């Protein structure tokens, strides 16, 4: 994270990550990704405005700031799917931070996520399908539930 961030924002980011770990049970890898995403956003804002980024400046984040961040992200070769994930991380942090600071998060939360092509599910091989059908009822507590589950999976 850049040196142009106030101690208060560094503490806020650490607080948000601690919140995610404690309440949502986020994994270490997830927390590292969120920290990287939000850190990149905060550093971008500091560089974009050419000044140290503090709570006041973060509260003034506008829709054009968000669009500039997304354009910069995509300009660095980040895929639309990854840009959408980064934006989701930023929105999550900003929502949490704004609630605690009493700031209006509308400009940040109103930015639309980049569109990306969703891939269709891939079909199972015949052997894999037989294995799924054969094991689908193994965890059922009653025989009729196992039969129902096997019938539904067989139809799929």
Task: Please describe what this structure looks like.
It is a single chain. By secondary structure, the chain is mainly alpha-helical. The protein folds into two domains: 103 residues, DNA polymerase, domain 1, CATH 1.10.150.130; 30 residues, no CATH class. It has eight helices and no strands. The termini are far apart.
How many structural domains are formed by the residues? Answer: 2
| Biggest pleated sheet | none
General shape: elongated
Percent helix, as a range, is 55-70%
Counting H and I runs of at least 4 residues, what is the number of helices? Answer: 8
Proportion of residues in extended strands: under 5%
Separation of the first and last Cα atoms: 48 Å
CATH architecture of the largest domain: Orthogonal Bundle
Topology:
Blueprint (H helix, E strand, L loop, with lengths): L6 H18 L3 H22 L5 H5 L3 H13 L4 H22 L4 H4 L16 H10 L7 H13 L1
Helix pairs in contact: 1-2, 2-5, 7-8
Give descriptors for this structure.
DNA polymerase, domain 1; mainly alpha; 8 helices; 2 domains; 156 residues; elongated
Quick structural summary:
Helix content is 69%, strand content 0%. With 156 residues, the protein is mainly alpha-helical.
């Amino acid at each position: 994270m850049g040196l142009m961030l106030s101690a208060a924002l560094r503490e806020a980011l650490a607080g948000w990550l601690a919140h995610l770990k404690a309440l949502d049970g986020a994994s270490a890898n997830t927390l590292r990704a969120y920290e990287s995403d939000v850190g990149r956003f905060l550093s971008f804002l500091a560089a974009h405005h050419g000044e140290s980024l503090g709570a006041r400046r973060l509260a003034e984040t506008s829709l054009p700031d968000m669009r500039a961040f997304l354009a910069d992200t995509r300009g660095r070769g980040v895929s639309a799917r990854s840009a959408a994930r980064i934006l989701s991380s930023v929105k999550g942090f900003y929502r949490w931070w704004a609630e605690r600071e009493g700031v209006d998060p509308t400009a940040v939360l109103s930015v639309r996520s980049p569109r990306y092509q969703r891939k269709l599910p891939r079909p199972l091989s015949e052997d894999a399908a037989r294995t799924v059908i054969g094991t689908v009822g193994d965890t059922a507590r009653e025989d009729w539930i196992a039969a129902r589950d096997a019938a539904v999976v067989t139809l799929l």
